[in-house]
């Protein structure tokens, strides 16, 4: 980050065309546009925006429920990840430390695939809902809404468009977690838990990205505040579960 990542805060760099103070520049400024000193001096800095307390988002019941839902799933994911080394040593004692470390690649690979495809799936589902609404407007002679107005906030069912795939992801996540615990408890072939790790990683990142996208759609002007609140509550939930995951496993068992 210090070497390559450029500053993106609009109050400092606008759309990226304003050269920030040297303190905010990367050590190796490869990414982004570079202006000469004269061009940079001619650029006008964007007006400063007033500070908005991100915690005010918790006053919205809808936002709070979505964040809690996200946090619970994220906590389960952290619990699975934190217990990999301990559970794999018990279930497969022949594994070396390096081999156990390589087992983490499965869940990471699933998250990588999820990150690559979730956005495309969300865009596709959004277009489907939009096209269906536009077609209904054209087919209904009594409709007072024009096809080009379907994407307006008061007309477009953004929750339905974003959450259409959520039941599939959620069911797969729950089934994968249950099967994962059973496989480790029964000490089946190691391929089983690793495949389920891929599925857990894929579904959990897909769910988190879907919820994050919906919250931003509901509050498009507070994207950074939403990200901050999301990170706060999900990391807190993850830390709590990780601190007690060993106690839960000892009390209830792996499967």
Automatic annotation (TrEMBL):
Gene Ontology CC, one term: plasma membrane
UniProt keyword Transmembrane helix, yes or no: yes
Record Gene3D superfamilies: MFS general substrate transporter like domains
InterPro entries: MFS_trans_sf
Positions of transmembrane segments: 57-78, 98-122, 167-184, 190-211
MF (Gene Ontology): transmembrane transporter activity
The keyword rRNA processing belongs to this UniProt entry's keyword annotation: no
Membrane topology: Multi-pass membrane protein
Keywords linked to the UniProt accession: Membrane, Transmembrane, Transmembrane helix, Transport
Subcellular location: Membrane
Listed name of the protein: Uncharacterized protein
Gene source species: Hermanssonia centrifuga
């Amino acid at each position: 980050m210090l070497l390559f990542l450029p500053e993106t805060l609009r109050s400092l760099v606008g759309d990226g065309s304003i050269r920030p103070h040297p303190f905010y520049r990367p050590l190796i400024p490869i990414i982004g546009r570079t202006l000469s000193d004269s061009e940079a001096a001619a650029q006008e800095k964007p007006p400063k925006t007033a500070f908005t307390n991100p915690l005010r988002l918790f006053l919205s019941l809808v936002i709070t429920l979505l964040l809690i839902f996200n946090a619970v799933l994220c906590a389960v994911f952290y619990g699975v990840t934190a217990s990999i080394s301990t559970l794999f040593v018990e279930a497969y004692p022949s594994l070396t430390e390096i081999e156990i470390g390589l087992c983490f690649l499965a869940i990471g690979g699933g998250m990588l695939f999820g990150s690559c495809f979730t956005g495309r799936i969300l865009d596709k589902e959004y277009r489907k809902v939009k096209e269906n609404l536009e077609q209904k407007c054209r087919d209904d002679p009594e409709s007072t809404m024009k096809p080009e107005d379907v994407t307006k906030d008061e007309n477009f069912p953004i929750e339905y468009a974003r959450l259409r795939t959520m039941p599939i992801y959620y069911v797969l996540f729950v089934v994968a977690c249950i099967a994962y615990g059973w496989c480790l408890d029964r000490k089946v072939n190691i391929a089983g838990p690793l495949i389920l790790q891929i599925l857990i990683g894929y579904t959990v990142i897909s769910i988190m990205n879907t919820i994050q996208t919906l919250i931003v759609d509901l509050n498009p002007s507070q994207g950074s505040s939403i990200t901050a609140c999301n990170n706060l509550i999900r990391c807190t939930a993850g830390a709590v579960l990780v601190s007690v995951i060993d106690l839960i496993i000892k009390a209830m068992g792996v499967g």
